[in-house]
UniProtKB/TrEMBL annotation:
SMART domains in the cross-refs: CRS1_YhbY
Protein's UniProt name: YhbY family RNA-binding protein
Residues in CRM domain copies: 1-86
InterPro entries to which the protein is assigned, alphabetical: RNA-binding_CRM, RNA-binding_domain, YhbY-like_sf
Keyword RNA-binding: yes
Alphabetized UniProt keyword annotations: RNA-binding
Pfam families, alphabetized: CRS1_YhbY (PF01985)
Molecular function via GO: RNA binding
Natural source organism: Methanoculleus palmolei
Keyword flag RNA-binding: yes
Length: 86
């Protein structure tokens, strides 16, 4: 998925005045397993640390714009390695 397509992605997680609770982090993890990329928005009066949310969810932070962030599922290192028969 390229950066231009992030704009077309609809937010599926909304963080309210309570902030990023454990329940919210669990929901982000669940959606990352299903969708691979999740867009998160939050209220103006809510202080959010995008890098902290990504670390808590075990996700890669792809983009932050205004009150919106995009997270992607982290790729495991072993999944990228393929054995070759020589």
């Amino acid at each position: 998925m390229n950066r231009e397509s992030f704009q077309d992605l609809k937010p599926t997680v909304w963080i309210g005045k309570r902030g990023a609770t454990n329940v919210m982090i669990d929901e982000i993890r669940r959606q990352l397993k299903d969708r691979k990329v999740v867009k998160v928005r939050w209220l103006r009066n809510t202080e959010i640390d995008p890098e902290g949310i990504a670390a808590s969810a075990g996700a890669a932070l792809l983009e932050v714009r205004g009150r919106t962030l995009v997270l992607a599922e982290r790729q495991s290192h072993s999944a990228g390695r393929r054995s070759r028969n020589i």
